[in-house]
Amino acid sequence: MSKDTRAGHTAGRESGGAPEVGRRTIIQGLAVSGCLAASGLLGSSPAGAQSTRPQPGHHFVFMTGDKEGQPVAPDDVKIGEPPLLAYPMDPATKTVLISRASLLLLMRLKEADLDPSTKPHSADGIVAYSGICTHEGCPISGHHENQRMAVCNCHGSTFDLGNNGAVAHGPAVRRLAMLPVTITDGALVVAGKLDGPIGPPAA
Predict the structure, then answer these.
(1) Structural domain of 127
(2) Is 94 part of any domain?
(3) How far apart are CA 54 and CA 129, in angstroms?
(4) Does residue 171 have a cis bond before it (omega within 30 degrees)?
(5) Which of 41, 71, 106, 158 has the most CB atoms in a 10 Å sphere around its CB?
(6) Would you give the distance in Å from CA 123 to the centre of its chain?
(7) pLDDT for position 51
(8) How confident is the model over 65-117, as pLDDT tens digits?
């Protein structure tokens, strides 16, 4: 049986192997809360530096699991499954942008669960958001019984992915930044830029 490539509630109970060690290392590093946001490291890149944020035309690759580093196809994102954590990749250079600022959350919702303001930025029910919680900067990897919600496992902040990433339950007070996506030639592609700030508000 193949391993689940999504970092959901059961991720910590997977058997230890090389992919799992890499996943734990990344998750632990991403879960250091507040420090980068407070120091401004989640802000815009310095002049002349390559942006660490997803750009229009980028594709997506799996952050962890058996398919780590491989492209995410639209069929990999399924209704009713936990958030899929991914990084953007420049398809021309195959450069994967690995940073907190570029960690993304993908979920597929039923079309009926997409609000009118959210649906135009989705692709066949797939929505993409910053994967960093706006409370203390943990990666968002939990699923809610309401399939349009994603949960931060650190402190339980819940975000409505069918409604522009709005906060449905705190302690977070700021919504997730949404990333427009489209499907082009069978590939899931970034169609715009993140529409808001990433991570917790600066102190």
Answers:
(1) 15-42+53-190
(2) yes
(3) 11
(4) yes
(5) 106
(6) 15
(7) 66
(8) 889 999 999 999 999 898 999 999 999 999 999 998 899 999 999 999 999 99
